[in-house]
């Protein structure tokens, strides 16, 4: 019997009844929707949402565009890379991002506590997948974090790039903002409080791209076990399966997004704002048998075998103070989430996964570091090198391999040698 997937484990929350309504117009069914969303995120960290304003054809156009872009030679894509901006706009090449589970002892302890059927596939080095960050929505007129709010990078030779990316990114962001409003109401927070936190945030349309011709090996980890650092992550449908999420009870569940729906998952910022009442969810992308079957179908039809994720990261505004809201400020464990500017929280997370290099920035003041209380581990790892084929070295020569070896031994499990993962 096939194991249950996300569509079996999670209810679908249909937003149709609340679209176009002011909160003071909600009826009893709408109020139940708000409470249900809050309860589901608390219990599982995930949601499946149907928003009638998000048409499937826009996702298809987006996937077509990104497949064309990533099929270009690596050197042409590298013209769109902005490492001085912490890769927060433009392309991030393979071999750059280091998975958080390799450098975070607390996360490694969490892995050891998972039951064997629910343990992730472990990586040994820097990330094999590419990524493109495209800003969505307005940015603040002034900010202390300009690198997190930079102008977008438009690749040459793609006249339909900006309108396609803007349309799809705005649709996903709109769905997330609607859910944030319903969630806030379900949690008993003041009207629009969560949406106001998101206003002028550094929201990103953030597709990943994995070349399944090069890296389509059974068990290959395309994006490893990690949480997202932002507020809410929105996943549209990909053309290739392999995404797994962890529910709060520790179950590892393959994702199946019903047609016309979106998967949303809580990020670290939402955990911060609720003092852990809603915990950041974990996920990974692994090549499994259904992935390989989809690759064969794509080859037979003459279609691309690049796996594109349809992802938006929604954020708290960079200059906003992250702190537990409303009743969560006095909840047990609230002290673990000290007042911290969202931009500082993001910077520390980026440092931990090697997307932000200290040599590119002035070090933060001791006062700022003390105020944030969110110092991340200092990874000794460096990303593997990139080749024109879109693959990367294992990156284990700089300490990643030995670090993971201890984790794998402690888990009694296997690691995907030479296969890297992502953590952003």
From TrEMBL:
Residues 364-391 have a biased composition (Low complexity). GO terms for molecular function: metal ion binding; oxidoreductase activity. InterPro entries: IPNS-like_sf. The keyword Repressor does not apply. Keywords: Iron, Metal-binding, Oxidoreductase. It comes from the Eukaryota. PANTHER family: 2-OXOGLUTARATE (2OG) AND FE(II)-DEPENDENT OXYGENASE SUPERFAMILY PROTEIN (PTHR10209:SF874), OXIDOREDUCTASE, 2OG-FE II OXYGENASE FAMILY PROTEIN (PTHR10209). This is Uncharacterized protein. It comes from Edaphochlamys debaryana.
């Amino acid at each position: 019997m096939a194991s249950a997937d996300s569509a079996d484990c999670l209810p679908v929350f249909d937003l149709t009844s609340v679209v176009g309504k002011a909160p003071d117009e909600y009826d009893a069914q709408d109020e139940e929707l708000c409470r249900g969303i809050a309860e589901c995120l608390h219990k599982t960290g995930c949601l499946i949402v149907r928003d009638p304003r998000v048409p499937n054809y826009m996702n298809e156009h987006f996937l077509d565009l990104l497949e064309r872009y990533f099929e270009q030679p690596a050197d042409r894509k590298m013209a769109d890379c902005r490492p001085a901006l912490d890769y927060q706009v433009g392309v991030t090449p393979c071999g750059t991002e280091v998975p958080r589970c390799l450098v975070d002892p607390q996360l490694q302890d969490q892995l050891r506590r998972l039951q064997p059927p629910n343990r992730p596939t472990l990586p040994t080095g820097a990330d094999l997948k590419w990524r493109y960050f495209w800003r969505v929505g307005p940015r603040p007129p002034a900010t202390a974090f300009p690198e997190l709010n930079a102008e977008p990078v438009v690749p040459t030779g793609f006249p339909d790039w900006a309108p396609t990316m803007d349309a799809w990114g705005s649709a996903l962001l709109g769905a997330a903002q609607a859910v944030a409003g319903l969630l806030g109401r379900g949690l008993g927070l003041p009207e629009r409080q969560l949406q106001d936190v998101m206003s002028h945030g550094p929201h990103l349309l953030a597709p990943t791209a994995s070349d399944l011709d090069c890296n389509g090996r059974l068990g290959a980890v395309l994006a490893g076990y990690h949480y997202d650092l932002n507020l809410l992550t929105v996943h549209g449908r990909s053309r290739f399966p392999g995404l797994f999420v962890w529910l709060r009870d520790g179950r590892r569940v393959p994702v199946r997004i019903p047609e016309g729906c979106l998967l949303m998952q809580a990020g670290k910022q939402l955990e911060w704002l609720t003092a852990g009442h809603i915990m950041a969810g974990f996920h990974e992308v692994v090549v499994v048998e259904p992935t390989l079957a989809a690759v064969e179908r794509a080859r037979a039809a003459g279609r691309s075998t690049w796996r594109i994720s349809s992802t938006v990261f929604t954020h708290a505004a960079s200059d906003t103070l992250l702190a537990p809201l409303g009743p969560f400020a006095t909840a047990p464990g609230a002290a673990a989430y000290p007042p911290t500017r969202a931009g500082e929280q993001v910077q520390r997370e980026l440092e931990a996964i090697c997307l932000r290099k200290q040599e590119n920035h002035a070090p933060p003041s001791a006062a700022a570091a003390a105020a944030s209380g969110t110092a991340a581990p200092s990874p000794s790892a460096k990303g593997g090198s990139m080749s024109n084929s879109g693959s990367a070295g294992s990156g284990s020569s700089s300490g990643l391999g030995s670090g993971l070896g201890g984790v794998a031994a402690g888990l009694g499990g296997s690691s995907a040698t030479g296969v890297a993962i992502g953590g952003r």
